[in-house]
């Protein structure tokens, strides 16, 4: 169950990234409720993201990655991940995907002239 939840969090973060940069995805998921309806997040997670949205209007794509990392830590504490190396490997992959999503957001932020 933890493994499925970590994957769901990563999928949620990737989807939130694409919502910010792809108009077609934004059309399909215009708000957080559509993410709940599609099964990418729960009502409790939606409430957390909404409370963060009221505090700041910066993007929140990092939050599901944070949740995934915390869940990997919890799995290690509970013995579901057998050693520290496996935990570090999984956490490194989560961080790598977060970096790639950040890179996509960076490419979307800066316009490159067509001449290049």
3D structure, described in words:
It comes from Cherax quadricarinatus. It is a multi-pass membrane protein. GO terms for molecular function: chloride channel activity. InterPro entries: Bestrophin, Bestrophin-like. Forms chloride channels. This protein has about 120 residues and is an all-alpha fold. The protein is about 75% helix and about 0% strand. It has helices at about 1-20, 25-30, 30-35, 45-55, 60-75, 85-110. Helix 1 packs antiparallel against helix 5, helix 1 (about 1-20) runs parallel beside helix 6 (about 85-110) and helix 5 (about 60-75) packs antiparallel against helix 6 (about 85-110). The mean pLDDT is about 90.
List keywords for this structure.
116 residues, mainly alpha, single chain
End-to-end separation: 47 Å
- Derived from helix and strand composition plus strand pairing, the structural class reads mainly alpha
* Overall pLDDT confidence: 91
Query: H/E order of the elements?
Result: HHHHHH
The helix count comes to: 6
Give the total of beta strands.
0
Low-confidence segments = none
Strand content: under 5%
> Roughly how many Å is the radius of gyration?
16 Å
Helix content: over 70%
């Amino acid at each position: 169950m933890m493994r499925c939840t970590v994957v769901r969090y990563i999928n949620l973060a990737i989807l939130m990234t694409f919502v910010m940069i792809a108009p077609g995805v934004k059309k399909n998921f215009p708000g957080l409720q559509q993410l709940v309806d599609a099964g990418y997040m729960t009502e409790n997670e939606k409430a957390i993201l909404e409370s963060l949205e009221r505090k700041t209007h910066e993007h929140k794509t990092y939050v599901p990655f944070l949740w995934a990392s915390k869940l990997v830590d919890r799995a290690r504490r509970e013995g579901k991940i057998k050693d520290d190396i496996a935990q570090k490997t999984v956490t490194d992959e989560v961080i790598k995907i977060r970096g790639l999503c950040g890179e996509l957001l960076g490419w979307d932020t800066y316009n490159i002239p067509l001449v290049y």
